[in-house]
Design brief:
The chain is mainly β and 463 residues long. It is built from 6 helices and 28 strands.
Length: 463
Amino acid sequence: MEFLQNNQESDRFIAKQLGAFWVPFLVVVVLVLFSCKKNNDFGLEVQPSQDLLSANQTDTTTLITYSSTGDSLKTDELSGPNLLGSYVDPSFGLLKTSIYTQIRLESSYDFRPSGASSLDDIVVDSVVLYLSMDGNYGNAGTQTFEVYQLDEDLFVDSSYYTNSSASYIPTDLIAVGQNTISVDPLVPGYVEGELVDEAILRIPLSISDFALPIMNESGTTTLDGNDGENEFLDWFKGLLITTNNPTQSINEGAIYYIDLLSDYSKITLFYRDTSGPAQDHDTIAFDFNLNANCARFHSSEIDYSSTIVDATISDSTLGDELFYVQPLGGCKGEIYFPFLDKLSDTSVIINKAELLLPFQFYLLDAYTPPTTLILSTKNNDGETIFLSDFFESDHGGAVDLVNSQYRFNITRHINEIVAGEKQNLPISIIPLGSGISANRAILNGANTSKKDQPKLVLTYTNY
């Protein structure tokens, strides 16, 4: 995963907010150090048994929560699905994802019958783009798909991001009148007429716009292979697979997880040689491959217009109630402890620090939160880094649907701040696997009116 620099919103907000916190500063320090309760169960794994009576705990550390604009993410040749589709989220607005991919010849080929100099006796029955699906995010149903031929080379050794694109020829390659397709990613589908054990998005392609132009290259170097000069990839650069759903309403639509590396993801051209007796007119199936040798990526379009997310990014104080996290280059969550570095002036040892982030989720909600959230910050050179605790086995971050919260152990990070080894900077929150997932989260803000507030729970010892 790549993080890009985007500090401006955080810096402006922190500068704006700190002035409002100087007055209660002494109160906060008193709460942190003295308004605490003994806890004989918490921290057993970090405290020797003889020291239990001296272990104190507080969850009153001041927090500032808000959302900021996210960074574009690398999405080419990732180990995971490519995302396709669109939906309208009641809080986040429109999310649309599109796939760019090469297709490759299965082998050197000539569509002309043996000994023939033309395609006059060839009849094309159909051509189908099969895409294996591994689930969805949102409400699966009917969407309008479009497929275009790329007019720009893709390269396996190039980097492509959520905001990347490639030029294309503006002729839709889907068969006329067959763009609108109902999809159920939970039901096994058919490939070449056979039921398979994976859900399949089946997109009929145009014979005249896709199949015949390729077949007419028979006898040229175009169909000799994939990678040479004037061969297939030089001539047919790839596909853009996208959707066009301008009338979607709130809660309509879904993002589909497409497995381009599945054996069932391919384009199959069905044709017959009618030059001989009718009983010999067998259908021939020729495959164009989608595989690991293909350059491929997916892009995302996010429209926060007139949403609460847009308002919260514009006015970060709204994050006091709720703040937001979205993958695919969407918004990041931010959390800041404005007085934490002041603990370096006190006589305390932090034995354990746990960050609790409650979130909004309801039974049967179509928008489940991310499986795991991860935390990052800046180092002293301004570079984005994981928190030191990320590499510990007990770091946490996994979703807890029973208690509707994420729990992180950030003891090492807090101690580095208290020791003056790191600056006290905001912590950014994004989903793990942000490039291959659409799952977003709505987190409770520092002073939310909801039942649970986020907390930094410190177990410490006075000395």
